[in-house]
Amino acid sequence: MAARASTLHYQPLLGTNDTSTSSSRKTLYVFLSFVAIISPTAFVALHFINPNLYHPLSSSSSDLASSLVPTHLCDSAHNPTSCLAMITEAVNGEEERLGLLSGSHFLQIFLEKSVPRIFNAMEVINGFNGRSNDLKALANCVKLMDLSIDRITDSVMALKTQSTRSHADAHAWLSAVLTNHVTCLDEVSESSRLSEWTRLVIEMEMEDLIARARTSLAMIVAISPPSSDDDDDDDGEELATWSMRKMITDRYRSWVTMRDRKLLEALPNDIIANVTVAKDGSGNYTTVREAVSSAPDKSKTRYVIYVNGTYEENVEVGKTKKNVMMAGDGMNLTIITGSLNYIDNGGSTWNTSTVAGPLKEQAVAIRVSADKVVINRCKMDAHQDTLRAFSPFLLWSEEHDNCQWLDRPNQDTGITIQNCDVIASSDLSNTTKTYLGRPWKLYSRTVFMQSFLGDLIEPEGWSEWKGDFALDTLYYGEYDNWEPGANTSSRVTWTGYYVITDPAVAENFSVAELIQGEDWLNSTGVPYTLGLF
Questions:
Q1: Which residue, of 12, 20, 225, 303, is most buried by count of CB atoms within 10 Å of its CB?
Q2: Which of 378, 291, 267 minimizes the C-alpha distance to 333?
Q3: 404-532: same fold as 66-223?
């Protein structure tokens, strides 16, 4: 869907659990809550327009506020000193009541004070419009900032309920905020079309927001400490949702309703769609984008779109389009394709959700920024960087026959590839070097287990991203895979690479342990295996 200029409106994530009164018609499903596609308003103010955001505290007020900030809130921070300084700055002026506040209240204040900083960053970015050769990178950043404001606002609302589930929700959303900020920084840093000055100014803004996002994660870890079973590293970048498994268990039961579960289990002829997309004019619309646009904003019931045939278009489901479901005839029968890519997109993969091939380098087949997504019986076909997952809650089942792909997105990213066939397509067989993975970011985590690895896999198995970047923070593992590409004798010798031999260790990466699938997958109708084969 083409982006359109409009004012930025907060779109709450909460209060959308109503069930649908409609059904749909076919067997390939994608559940979508929303993805931010709204375009930025034309702000022109630069960083110095709002200097009050950056006034230093006076010595006396700083000392008083600092003495009242619980230091344990920053125990898990990447930089505890910086973390405490940021909290102290945020609570300046609240000294009379600080002694009565809980850790949750401190976090709420900190988050509320973070929102104006994000707006200011958006103003800075928009100030370069008309003076930049890479408007896409700038627009992408503004979209990400807009979504971050929504996530923060909902986190504050959730924290005010003071329940375990609401803290878990807030933790996931704040993790997504950090992901958004880092993605914007990547967009700007990797752009070849921005001037050095433009990059420098925006990078300074984003580094500040990233530091504050890490501080918010440290704070929520402090007020919602992990159980003794959780043994994550204490680095700020590692502040992934310790309660992700609990969150997925609790949330999935509420947002995948009984009616939706029946849709997942239904036979093709048992499903009725709200609208149909058909090129020949026999349906309600001839393009997928038109059908998505027809979906009511902020719907509290499921809106089902049946798509018939192949469509060459780039489809975005905006953040106001909630409770949208797309259904098709099968992964090789209903196809949405396009040609956006890293090369033509100015060195960015964030907005390249298509299937362009090798000459255009990376081309994301699907980007998921929605809060709650189920992808079932879908094939994602792209040259590189096929999936970009920003979603706190994402279930991906049956991408190919007999394959389970599990992803816990955002900071505590972990992917298990179990019972899969890793083989080359006929046009790439014996012609392209292939690796199991490479660390694009710090704390990359991937495990291949009980899968067939074809002879396309290079003997070393894994590849660097850029020199020794992230090699000391990654966790890559292999367990019980079979030939011809599963021989680990010549694998990399990085400290974070493991040949797993203990079944008990491998079980930690199974459906049962990684996402506690036994608690909630039965209700979805999606086939799975809990443990090892």
A1: 303
A2: 378
A3: no
Rounded-to-integer distance, Cα 386 and Cα 381, Å: 7
Q: Are 336 and 288 in contact (CB under 8 A)?
A: yes
pTM over 0.70: no
Contact between residue 362 and residue 386 where contact means Cβ atoms under 8 Å apart:
no
The answer regarding whether domain 404-532 maps to CATH 2.40.160.20 reads: no
CA–CA separation, 493 and 10 (whole Å): 48
Q: Tell me, what amino acid is at 76?
A: S
Q: What is the pLDDT at residue 31?
A: 42
Start-to-end CA span in the chain (Å): 43
Q: What is the pLDDT of residue 355?
A: 43
Beta strands in 390-508 (DSSP E): 393-397, 404-408, 414-418, 421-422, 445-449, 452-453, 475-479, 497-499
3-state class of 325 per DSSP? strand
User: Which pLDDT score, from 0 to 100, does residue 125 have?
Assistant: 93
Q: Cβ contacts of residue 51 below 8 Å, gap of 6+?
A: none
Half-sphere exposure of 140 (CA within 13 A, CB side): 25
The C-alpha atoms of residue 517 and residue 304 are separated, in whole angstroms, by: 26
Give the whole-angstrom CA distance, residue 430 versus residue 456: 6
For residue 322, which of 344, 299, 339, 305 has the smallest C-alpha distance? 299
Query: Domain 66-223 carries which CATH code?
Result: 1.20.140.40
396: β partners: 375
Q: Is there a contact between 379 and 34 (Cβ–Cβ < 8 Å)?
A: no
Each domain of the chain, given as residue ranges in start order, spans 66-223, 404-532
Question: Which DSSP string corresponds to 500-531?
Answer: ---HHHHHTTSHHHHS-GGGTGGGGT-----S
3-state secondary structure of 384: coil
Taking the CA atoms of 17, 21, 27 and 29 in sequence, report the sign of the dihedral they define. Answer: negative
DSSP string, 96-130: HHHTT--HHHHHHHHHHHHHHHHHHHHHHHHTTTT
Q: What is the DSSP letter of 310?
A: E
CA dihedral over 441, 13, 233, 528, signed as positive or negative: negative
Counting as low any pLDDT under 50, the low residues of the chain are 1-9, 13-59, 225-254, 341-343, 346-363, 392-393, 400-413, 523-524
